[in-house]
Structures are given as C-alpha cells and as structure tokens.
Amino acid sequence: RRRVGILSFQGDFAAHARALRRAGAEPSFVRRIDDLAHLDGLILPGGESTTMLRFLQAEPWFDALREFAASERPLFGTCAGAILLAQSVIHPAQTSLGLLDMTIRRNGYGRQLDSFTDTACITALGEAPLELVFIRAPIIESVGTEVEVLAECGGYPVWVRQGRVFAATFHPEMTDDARVHQFVFGSGFGRDVNRSA
Ligand code: GLN
Known about the structure:
Blueprint lengths: L2 E5 L5 H10 L3 E5 L10 E4 L4 H9 L3 H10 L4 E4 L1 H6 E5 L9 E6 L9 E6 L9 E6 L3 E5 L4 E6 L2 E7 L2 E4 L10 H7 L12
Parallel strand pairs: 1-2, 1-3, 3-4, 4-12, 5-6
Antiparallel strand pairs: 6-9, 7-8, 10-11, 11-12
Bound molecules: glutamine.
The site of glutamine has 11 residues, from helix 4.
C-alpha cells in the first residue's frame, strides 16, 4: 500500500487520513521535515493557510517541500493547502511555495457563501457526479499554460494539476467518495489522464 503523508500542524488532517484509508492508501502524519522521507505522496490539508505558513517558515520547510515536488511524488493541496502551493496569493497577498502556476484569491466567495456544496461531473473520475464541499474556499482566478483543469464549478477551476502537483479548492476528504484521493494517489498515481506514460 502506498504511504501518503499529511501535513498535520493544523487543519483537517484527520479527515484526510480517513479519506486516504478509503482510497486504499496508508496515511502518515507529518509534523517534522524528517517525516517526509519514505513517503509516496503528500497532502497539504485545509485549515488556515496563514497559521500553517507560520509553522512552515519556522524551519526550512519550503526547501524540503520543493524538493519533495521535484522528486515527482504526488503533492496535493486542498483549500488552505492549495493556497500554500500557488504561484501567487491575493486578498490578501501571502507568501507561498509557487509550485503550481495559478493565482488564487483567499476567501473568494465572501461571507454570504461561507460554506456550500455543489456537484461537478469530472470525466477523469467516471460517470457519477462528484459532491464538492466548499468552506471559506479560495477561488482560482487564473492558471498558467502548464496547468490542466480537472474540474470546474461556477466558471472557476476547482481542481487543477501541474505535473504531479494537484490543488483543489473544495474538500474531497469531507465526503465518502474516495475517487479524488484515488486519482491522485491510487493506481493511476497522478498519471496524466490522457497520456499513458
Ligand atoms: N480561508 C482559509 C485560508 O485562507 C482556507 C479555508 C479552508 O481551508 N477551508 O487559509
């Protein structure tokens, strides 16, 4: 079974652990840089990106996470985790890893839509629609040419990838549907949908 780490300083890392088990992977909680060794993939969970950033900046995490991404192991940021991966963060601006070429707007849906659900049909996941849970979600405002949009909702990309770096603005760990985690970390293991590499 593949061993997938979850950055566990803050946020909904426990829900991701359950989702990984449903997807047939073995979760591993990551709190120290050394914990990144021997992982097959890594999740940056939802929560509060500014708080996570404080932990990440207290030690050489930025170098470690960039090395992790360069090693071609899947890296998946959800919600706050997506904010941490972005090339550019606005509203307000915030430092980020720059591992996925997108501009992301924090709390993009505003107070009226603090939390909501929607559905999307994602060809890569098969026929059944996927339930999308958004919680104080960011909006992906633009993506670079190297970025593939895996899902869209309300006119915005909500699930994207650049190579094996994935980001979702919704919370795939909050439903019983394991297809997103399976797609990123499962048998396909972050492979291109349309290519057979
Ligand atoms: N609003 C949070 C932030 O800006 C993200 C919300 C979430 O991860 N559910 O970090």
